[in-house]
Design brief:
heterodimer; A: alpha/beta; Rossmann fold; six-stranded mixed β-sheet; four-stranded antiparallel β-sheet; 10 strands; 33% helix; globular; B: mainly alpha; 9 helices; 0% strand
Chain lengths: 247, 259
């Protein structure tokens, strides 16, 4: 379980997350939605420790990530996998080297690593003929799958997805959503997904809505379209009238 | 206290804090790289890759710079020495100047412009496209993976490039002395062998090594800490070249005093 308690993040005078608290259940898929610029990606980066909060705490498996030792940080990174919005593949490395980077750094031979990479490629439904390509030669959907495969190489128990389907066409979006869902079921991972796509609700267990630095709604994803919470009602329908003010 | 004085003091305080923060981060950055250099094994493949990128790719400009500097230096020395009948010392002056000063400094400045800027641009792009964050989440030490090979390669490669520049400069001077000024080739060579010793050459090579450290330190730091999208990368690249060049020129004085 991930427990976020009274999390506040300020940049100068600007408050991004304001006394935010949220419990993310284990083995489930939680989708965090909210308007652009609300700090959803920032929240995810604070969970994994890429950004330190101003105050508050995040506890993963009993480790307070906001105030932990380098060893504990390594344990957290071993537990968590992060899928970046634009895949963040290393341009100078081939697809194979990108996916196998941790193995190669830990002394595995290229032959040993190749077999393990092929296995993960199958998981993300990619063919091994892309292994020698470079990130610049991949389509957006392929790059995101490669990014996903790279994250899976560490066998994380918690997957953090930062808008994994941004910029993809609806069909590819659906493919990625199905893939995330099947991986979650297959490996029984805890998934936290930042997304603007309502299509993802059918695969999610929980939805949390971030508004003005706090969680304005949290609840089951099933029946979200019938939910009478005014924030959720307005947001998922994209209505301009309601409690959420236009920026 | 009048408001204007308070505002001025406030601004001065902010400015001082910012300078302390930047200088502190800059020093801690090198410390971080140093710790990784000592505590982790060096990735030879990455080191060779960087030696190739920083060294081999810079040979052309270093050879050109060295040759033409040597030629101009010989020509200018001739103008000065001919007024007092000391043409026989042109070789000594060219060789000493190239080995002790111009070889390492010009090499440092040229490599800063070529490779230091490339380091800042590459690392800056990696920073803003979250590639460095990705490495961190994958439990790869970014200092050991990205910074150490670049700094180490620069320290190794700069003396070699400086030696190239020095040799080319002496050779350029030779051509000017012998073919343009019609002076004696033997005199040019003997004045070098007579008055220039190995300590002069080693002093220059030591300087070049330090310049390698400075330019890569500046390039890596500016790139690694870049922010603000494409504009931020451009700014980081410019700052890397400016900072690297200024550091080289400043430390050069200290080294000249010491060596």
């Amino acid at each position: 379980m991930i427990r976020i308690q009274h999390l506040t993040k300020r940049f100068g005078e600007r408050i991004i997350t304001n006394d935010l608290s949220l419990d993310i259940p284990e083995g489930k898929m939680t989708v965090i939605i909210g308007r652009s610029g609300e700090g959803k990606s920032l929240l995810l980066k604070q969970i994994i420790g890429l950004i330190k909060p101003t105050s508050g705490s995040i506890i993963i498996d009993g480790i307070e990530t906001t105030n932990c030792t380098p060893q504990e940080q390594q344990t957290v990174l071993q537990t968590c996998g992060y899928v970046f919005q634009f895949a963040a593949l290393l341009d100078s490395l081939s697809v194979f080297e990108n996916i196998a980077i941790t193995l190669l750094q830990n002394g595995y031979s290229r032959e040993q690593a190749r077999e393990m990479v092929k296995e993960k490629l199958t998981c993300v439904q990619l063919n091994e003929d892309i292994l020698d390509k470079y990130p610049s030669e991949l389509s957006g959907g392929m790059a995101k799958r490669v990014g996903l495969a790279r994250t899976l190489m560490n066998n994380p128990r918690i997957m953090l997805y930062d808008e994994p389907t941004t910029g993809l066409d609806p069909i590819t979006q659906r493919h990625i959503h199905e893939l995330m869902h099947s991986l979650q079921k297959q490996f029984n991972t805890t998934s936290v997904v930042i997304s603007h796509s309502t299509d993802l609700f059918q695969f999610a267990d929980h939805v949390a809505f971030l508004y003005e630095g706090r969680i304005a709604y949290t609840g089951p994803a099933q029946g979200i379209w019938e939910c009478d919470n005014p924030y959720i009602y307005q947001f998922i329908r994209g209505n301009t009238h309601g409690p959420i003010q236009a920026v | 206290m009048p408001l204007t004085i308070t505002n001025t003091l406030d601004r001065l305080g902010h400015y001082t804090l910012r300078i302390c923060d930047t200088v502190g981060s800059f020093v801690l950055f090198l410390k971080g790289a140093g710790v990784q250099l000592i505590t982790t094994s060096i990735d030879t493949k990455k080191l060779i890759q960087q030696i190739d990128q920083i060294g081999i790719a810079s040979i052309n400009i270093v050879v050109l710079t060295g040759t033409f500097t040597g030629m101009v230096f010989a020509l200018q020395s001739y103008i000065g020495f001919s007024r007092m009948g000391g043409e026989q010392f042109i070789g000594t002056v060219v060789a000493l100047g190239m080995a002790r000063e111009l070889g390492p400094v010009l090499t440092g400045l040229m490599v800063t412009g070529r490779a230091g800027s490339a380091m800042a641009a590459e690392l800056g792009t990696m920073r803003i496209s979250e590639q460095i964050d990705a490495l961190w989440t994958l439990r790869i030490n970014t200092f050991s993976y990205l910074i150490v090979p670049r700094i180490l390669a620069s320290i190794i490669v700069l003396p070699c490039l400086s030696l190239f520049a020095t040799c080319c400069g002496i050779l350029g001077g030779y051509f000017v002395v012998v073919y343009a000024l019609n002076l004696s080739a033997e005199q040019y060579i003997s004045s070098i062998t007579q008055f220039v010793n190995l300590a002069d050459v080693f002093g220059g090579l030591t300087k070049a090594s330090v310049f390698g450290l400075l330019l890569s330190w500046a390039g890596c730091f500016k790139g690694y800490t870049a922010s603000g999208g494409a504009r931020g990368v451009g700014k980081a690249t410019t700052q890397a070249v400016v900072l690297g060049s200024i550091l080289i020129l400043m430390i050069n004085y200290v080294l000249t005093k010491v060596l």
